[in-house]
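Retro notes - structure team

What went well: the batch runner handled both jobs without manual restarts.
What didn't: labels got mixed up in the shared folder, which is why I'm recording both outputs here explicitly, each with its sequence directly above its tokens.

Job 1
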Amino acid sequence: MTQALHVEIIGDGPPVVLLHSSGLSGRQWNRLSTTLSQNGFRVIVPDLHGHGKSPTWPEPTPFSYLEDVAALVPVLKSHGPAHVVGHSYGGLLALLAALKASEAIRSMTLFDPVAFGVLEPRDVAAHAELAAVPVDWGSTEGEHERWLQAFVDYWGGAGAWASLRPDARAEFIRVGWVVHQGVTTLMTDATPLEAYIQLAFPFTFLTGERSPLAARTVVKRLSNAIPGAKLITVPEAGHMAPLSHADVVNKHVLEAVLVR
């Protein structure tokens, strides 16, 4: 049931594709889009399935992260070769889409991509951390919201759900089903580290000093294995640094695409 995604295009010049994290939308990148377009780039910003201005994905229709991968490949092919920037879920999609359309990628800059398939058996603490995240969606609105709270608090820290603006919390609830489905299905992704080593374009990986252990371990595995990859840790920041520390993250993104 792969659908066409809503895509915003801003500016003109070399293309940069921005892929948002789960539960948000292309609006996540508003400040970065402005910065990139002012520096001579054409910015392509998709809303992933069920998010933002893309068509709603109704419950209980099953959904898989692979639907988003399939929808992104033609976007990349039609705009590439492009610099690709992804955060969290968007970072995983970028990696998987690149395996299908590497010729459409000029460079990749990823913040905490959730490519958990690269974790090794010895990453015991990371596996245990992920295993503790609830998976049951339940059948009532209250159960749905409890799952969303656990999800947001895992990535944003304890109290992150309660601290969301009412409109942001309402949007998470609106897209909750597709978020849950995407998250639970991506946990089955077993794409090994060896697959990504074959991607022959420049990589910059970013993580937060306070990002969850599993995310930091994924970035460490990828950056150590991919030849020439650069790793940047944002001090005193967590997984949501592209929002909470946007100035710092956006500076690193701009530097990454300008030199390529």
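Job 2
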Amino acid sequence: MVKLNKIYTRTGDAGTTGLVDGSRVAKSAPLMAAIGDVDEANSALGLAVAVLPEGAREAAMLARIQNELFDLGADLATPADPDHGFGPHDMALRIVPGQIERLEAEIDAMNDALAPLTSFILPGGTEAAARLHLARAIARRAERAAVATAETRALNPHALAYLNRLSDHLFVMTRAINAAAEGDILWKPGATR
């Protein structure tokens, strides 16, 4: 259970922040960029949820994803355990294969109802889809930052896979939302020449 009595601690005034194990890293470290990008993606998802109709199945999927993005941030902020590696245990919140498998099942279910792509699509359409496209782009940035971090610091491979699947999920969801409206906005190569 998280309990925050005081929002500011002054412990980060020198440009460092604490990880779950108590160690400190520079706020400019690639790991912190990845964690910040995950937080930004989560915030963008909140904007999308705010314009979805109440009770929409997409809102329920996104609520699960938003919660999992907090789990993902905790995972990234928790170094590998000497005894458990990146496996889940009482002292570490980890992304697990079942979460990735659920994303894949949701992607497949949404995609099965869509016409195959015949062109690249432009970000936009309904307001909810446009907001999800922004969240998708931020999720891709979070993935790039996490992959860059993993080049110098061990990260849970399931966390990396989750980020990869997340942007795919959001892309297919934008298509599903737009299909229920006026459809995808197709790219027209060279249309303004």
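One thing worth noting from job 2: The chain has one domain: 26-113+120-185.
We'll revisit the folder naming next retro.
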